[in-house]
Write a structure and sequence with these properties.
The complex is a heterodimer of chains A (500) and B (247).
Chain A lengths: L7 H7 L21 H9 L2 H23 L4 H17 L1 H14 L3 E5 L2 H14 L4 E4 L3 H5 L2 H7 L3 E4 L2 H8 L16 H12 L8 H18 L2 E4 L3 E3 L4 E6 L3 H7 L3 E7 L3 E2 L5 H12 L7 E5 L7 E7 L3 H5 L15 H5 L1 H6 L10 H11 L16 H5 L6 H14 L5 H14 L2 H17 L2 H4 L21 H9 L14
Parallel strand pairs in A: 1-10, 2-3, 2-4, 4-7, 5-8, 7-10
Antiparallel strand pairs in A: 5-6, 6-9
Helix pairs in contact in A: 3-13, 4-13, 10-11, 17-19
Chain B lengths: L1 E4 L3 H6 L1 H13 L3 E3 L9 H4 L4 H15 L4 E4 L2 H10 L7 H8 L1 E3 H8 L13 E5 L2 H6 L15 H6 L6 E3 L14 H4 L1 H17 L4 E4 L2 H14 L4 E4 H5 L5
Parallel strand pairs in B: 1-2, 1-3, 3-4, 5-6, 5-7, 7-8
The chains are: A alpha/beta (500), B alpha/beta (247).
Amino acid sequence: MSTNQPDPNATIQSKTATREAQPRPVKAPDGKRVDHARSAKQFLNAPEHAKSHDTRVWAMRTKRDKQAHTIEEWEELRELASQIKTHTLTNLDTYLEQFEANAKANGIHVHWAADGAEHNRIVHEIFKEHGVKSVIKAKSMLMEECGFRHYMDSVGIEIVETDLGERIQQLDGEDPSHIVVPPVHKMRSDVARLFAEQLGSDPDNDDAHYLAGAQRDATRPLILDADAGMTGANFAVAETGGFVVCTNEGNADLSANVPNLHVASIGIEKLVPRVEDMGVFIRLLSRSALGSPITQYTSHFRAPKQGGEMHIVLVDNGRSKRLGMERFWSSLKCIRCGACMNTCPVYRRSGGLSYGATYAGPLGLILNPSFDLHRYSNLPFASTLNGSCTNVCPVKINIHEQIFGWRQVLAEEGHLPWTKKTGLTAAGQVLASPKGYRMAIKTTNSALKHLPRWALYNRMNAWGEGREMPSPPDNGTFHDWYKRNRLNGQAKTSAGGANE
Amino acid sequence: MRIGLFVPCFIDAFYPDVGIATLELLERFGCDVDYPFDQTCCGQPMVNSGCHDEAAATEALFVKNFAKYDRIVAPSGSCVHQVRDNLTAIEQTPEVKHVRENTLELVEFLHDELQVEAFPWANFPHRVGYHDSCNTLRNLGHGKPSELHGEYFSKPRTLLEKVAGIELVAIDRPDECCGFGGTFSVTEPEVSTQMGQDKIADHGRNGAEYIVSADSSCLMHQSGCAARIGAPIQFKHIAEILNGASQ
């Protein structure tokens, strides 16, 4: 704990209170759609945060480009990684059984969980058997999916996040906003204020080293006293029954090695056949994620430590169902690098929490609907379909085509908002009729020309909130021009009539 | 070879000069160009929102209008992408396949098919920032996107470099989306306009007097953003410059 403990309330007012407050997303009530646009608007209404977020996340994309472009065979590596994942997913049953048999032979206890609830129950049972009261945990998106921390809160077991970013989010009661850098939407001043409240550090000191030190002082004793450690896994190797965890802080190694009990939660899609496959994935992972050649720690776990106990919980939680979806199964190739988020111009402008789901950004647009189609029915529309996500994906998931595909599923299954659906149905009818179409253009241009500004730029005009409308051309449409200049004023078909 | 000129709906309504420039440019190269009068739209607004069934009648009309041509050329990357890659709401008859396989975006047609070497009539003595629309860049293959590893190429810049007087300027985020995105522009207006403002600021910061693109939809969005804040930057479709517009 920091020795410098001023009265937090007094000092907060002095400096940090003048800074822009951290924007908070609008939480959708249970059973309601997440409103990405509304939360994004709130995020953009905090311009310092929004600009800092865009700049920082774009910097990761830039570094990624630099790293990727130094490797001549980069695109071949992506193709190879994609093929290894496709092969594994095609033979997933075989590889899972092989993994389980080898892990057991190494002395690891292996459990199977059909969904998040079962995962949480299994882990709870293990903890009960060992009388576990406090747990140190490395970052895991799977455990976020399972709502693991909330569950453990409800049964009175203390979870301490050991990843600095994830710890910040835990202390703030927020979900991670990015899968690799969880608090990337926060500014240092936000962290200084949070640590002052939660850890008693100096709210006016937003030096990164000072803040990291304050957190370390506060958390280290909890790590040393924990009864159990939890990690996720980046890869599970079928031929050895071992698994690989990549971190930059070494926190997974603390979580795995300090307590005698280590529980690893692993999604069934994490399998790769052979250890040598790591030679492909490790080269891709951190370069894609942060633009660094490799993570600081790449830890291979294969058996419990001497005198310790190791458990693996293999979790499905919707993965088998997704594997059966013809258009969307390849999303299971994902290695959770976050490159698609970093390149996504919408993610960078709206912040990860605006997605209101475990997964943000392009990856979130294609994963979340498979968990709850209605709740996440707006998300596939939080994209311009620009396609850069597909190009940066190290395992070549056709992300933007899947976003496009989910839109079709949503429309077919009746999850589009009523106004959108009726508007597009009407548009489809007008655009299928040459006469109706010419009439619509005439009406639009006439309105743009003759309506006063206050009537055009009303509350209903989303285009006009931040943009001017195009002005109608002085000499009419192209259609008019063509008739005058190429056909001597004669319309070739009846459709021209509507415009005369 | 008979060419059917496809002038997408919003170009017809708001940017007739782009349609005129495209037609005149093709005629300068001796193309036999026809403009089918009953044309409306390619179906993209419905399809990009997932409403494929609602687009079927529009798609059928498109095919009916253009089936008789050897090539269909349009000055709009996103519409060409729709026709070529996503016009699937109707039965894929030989006629439909013919239309889909032979629809080309103007830059592709000039660069790949006509292999134009010179635009002797063109002179554009200005600093130009070229805007790669996402559809032309990543779906039609106008160039190498910055995030992919490989040999650099850019078909539109290759064409623009043949224009006398032009100075092409580089920007900080060369192929970042401008935020138009079709219905995205109105369902996510704040993010969309923020992206548009960031885009024009990037061009302005790097000294561009004009933003030029092969997609009028991106330009409509960006010019709307620029007009709202009074930014002095101007906008032109690449067809207008290649056809000899001087300002």
